[in-house]
Amino acid sequence: MLKMRQRLIIITLALAFLLTACLWSNTLQQETRTPSVGIEFTSTPNELTRLSSLYPYIKGKTQLEYAFVLKVIDGDSILVEMKGRKYEVRYIGIDAPEFEGATWAAAERAADVNRLLVLYRQVMMIRDISETDRYDRLLRYVFVGDLFVNYELVKLAVAEAKAYMPDIACQGLLSRAMP
After folding, report:
1. Do 65 and 132 touch, CB atoms closer than 8 A?
2. How far lies 8's CA from each of 18, 86, 108, 119, 140, in Å?
3. Which domain range does residue 49 map to?
4. What is the pLDDT of residues 78-89, one digit of tens each?
5. What is the number of domains present in the chain?
6. Burial classification of residue 146, based on how many CB atoms lie within 10 Å of its CB (0-12 exposed, 13-18 middle, 19 or more buried)
7. What is the C-alpha to C-alpha distance for residues 108 and 69, in angstroms, rounded to an integer?
8. pTM over 0.85
9. In CATH, what number is assigned to the domain containing residue 172?
10. pLDDT (tens digit, 9 = 90+) per residue, 111-169?
């Protein structure tokens, strides 16, 4: 029974990988260029930021959701349309600066990088334990093609890894992304 379940998970992830291959090929050039905010995206297809390598972290979390990003709210949250409805989504395991006081410029930079990664693109989302946070935002790991957005924002130093129990499946990986 356990082996069958593992096979189903692997097949599901493989199908998700194949479905996102088209998006990956279309967005690869945009992801690796140097954007106007002065950040160079340095991830390569062989890094742990890629969906196919995340299996040990997300096994058992097989409900994949696809959505279209309508708006970037800030460095760690977005507004998406999914199944004809709009949802606010908060990235799991990271924290970006807020638009207030001394952190305004850093928050703007984080939002700009987030915009470059996800705005007007299809994303794939994976839930950890919790469905929503106390503000009724969906809590998700987010991917554009095969790029793990939560990880990339930490790696680019516009957000930091931060554990929010009980959603910690990828926390070790996100912590290692911090410069």
Report:
1. no
2. 15, 30, 41, 31, 21
3. 2-176
4. 999 999 999 999
5. 1
6. buried
7. 18
8. no
9. 2.40.50.90
10. 999 999 999 999 999 999 999 999 999 999 999 988 899 999 999 999 999 999 999 98
